[in-house]
Amino acid sequence: NAGVMQNPRHLVRRRGQEARLRCSPMKGHSHVYWYRQLPEEGLKFMVYLQKENIIDESGMPKERFSAEFPKEGPSILRIQQVVRGDSAAYFCASSPTLLSGGVGTEAFFGQGTRLTVV
Amino acid sequence: DAKTTQPNSMESNEEEPVHLPCNHSTISGTDYIHWYRQLPSQGPEYVIHGLTSNVNNRMASLAIAEDRKSSTLILHRATLRDAAVYYCILRDSGAGSYQLTFGKGTKLSVIP
Question: How far is residue B29's CA from residue A47's CA, in Å, rounded to a whole number?
């Protein structure tokens, strides 16, 4: 059973370009979460999606960032007109059910996409 | 949200036990204590979680203080592969507690 797959692993973009980060959740998982990790920082929640729905985007910057999880295919995190401050590692996680604190509710993370804006 | 406090870094010799502490003095009665770790250039990985009783799994043990204001992650025999940043995270038992709040964690170095 393949884990959470993210691609590309490394992405370099010039300022003003668009970045598209892809995440394929584990088989059978319909809940996807995106996190961002700035250099020397902890991970910060960005958005939670289920198939075809954005459930919580409270951690997403209001401008330039969007996310989707279509009925078919991977989840996409899209950053338009990238700036140097967008340089970070972006991690995707998935779970088979809605996470809560209790039994059997761990999130499975991918290896991340490291975005560098030059 | 209840907050956790961890030492910035710790060192251990290979093959020796490691005790990683976490303080959470404002923990609520419905908060579970979760531990994740992040190996270099990897995504976080679930380690263990518990509510009140001590817990064991194949990766580690979790010792929870009687008043639940602190806990300790125990790696019984550290290996070089255990060098990582370890995060202690509180999560409410209610449905919808899906946001994992990562602090800076404890960076564990393992000395051969």
Answer: 27
Q: What is the pLDDT of residue B100?
A: 86
Residue at B96: amino acid letter: G
Q: Express each pLDDT in B41-60 by its tens digit.
A: 999 999 999 999 999 999 99
Tokens 């370099």 sit on residue? A12
pLDDT digits (tens, 9 = 90+) for A78-97: 999 999 999 999 999 998 87
Q: Name the closest residue on chain B to residue A90, using Cα atoms.
A: B43
Q: Which residues of chain A from 43 to 102 reach within 8 Å of chain B, CB to CB? A: 43-45, 48, 56, 59, 91, 93, 95, 98-102
Angstrom distances, CA of residue B96 to CA of A76, A100, B27: 22, 6, 18
